[in-house]
UniProtKB/TrEMBL annotation:
<dbReference type="Pfam" id="PF14656">
    <property type="entry name" value="RAB3GAP2_C"/>
</dbReference>
<feature type="domain" description="Rab3GAP regulatory subunit C-terminal">
    <location>
        <begin position="1"/>
        <end position="166"/>
    </location>
</feature>
<dbReference type="InterPro" id="IPR029257">
    <property type="entry name" value="RAB3GAP2_C"/>
</dbReference>
<protein>
    <submittedName>
        <fullName>Rab3 GTPase-activating protein non-catalytic subunit</fullName>
    </submittedName>
</protein>
Length: 166
């Protein structure tokens, strides 16, 4: 991009401006950033719902694991469309656990104290964990319908029929 500067600023001496420094930076490889986002979201879900026996790196194949330790500006080989069925099974089980834990946390707190979702998750206002699990399913190459069906089944099993119908 072209940066127009006023004449008064041309003769100024000192450190390089932050805009010039930003323009000199290498561009990031966006799919690698998305890959890191999936890991961060996975780790946050494990922490948020205290999911036991979930090994976050088991959700990724060898290419995916290697990509975590590379510079974000490098172009890395990311997992292709063909995945190991065992990894896909582990991913599906993880997403099902997240949805189950989110519904259980929401329903148990609402029944106990009649607390709204915003009060239950004050730092997560507007964050709908089941919807986030569906979004993660797309990144993890899992059928979104499986996650949605499980969500509806969980709502019905906790007596939230009105939400399940929606």
């Amino acid at each position: 991009p072209v940066l127009d500067t006023e004449d008064a600023w041309v003769s100024v001496e000192g450190p390089v401006s932050i805009v010039e420094l930003a323009l000199e930076q290498k561009r990031v490889h966006y799919p690698l950033v998305e890959h890191q986002f999936v890991l961060c979201t996975t780790l946050y879900a494990i922490m948020r719902f205290s999911l036991k026996s979930v090994k976050p790196l088991s959700l990724f194949d060898s290419k995916g694991k290697n990509a975590f330790f590379k510079d974000l500006t490098s172009i890395q080989l990311l997992p292709s469309g063909d995945m190991d069925p065992n990894v896909l099974s582990i991913r599906q089980q993880f997403l099902v656990k997240v949805v189950s834990a989110a519904v259980q946390t929401l329903c148990s707190s609402q029944k106990a104290n009649e607390v709204s979702e915003e009060e239950l998750f004050p730092f997560e206002k507007g964050k709908n964990w089941p919807t986030l699990a569906v979004d993660l399913a797309q990144y993890l190459q899992i059928s979104e319908d499986v996650v949605k069906r499980h969500y509806v089944c969980e709502l019905y099993s906790y007596g939230m029929d009105h939400l399940g119908e929606e």
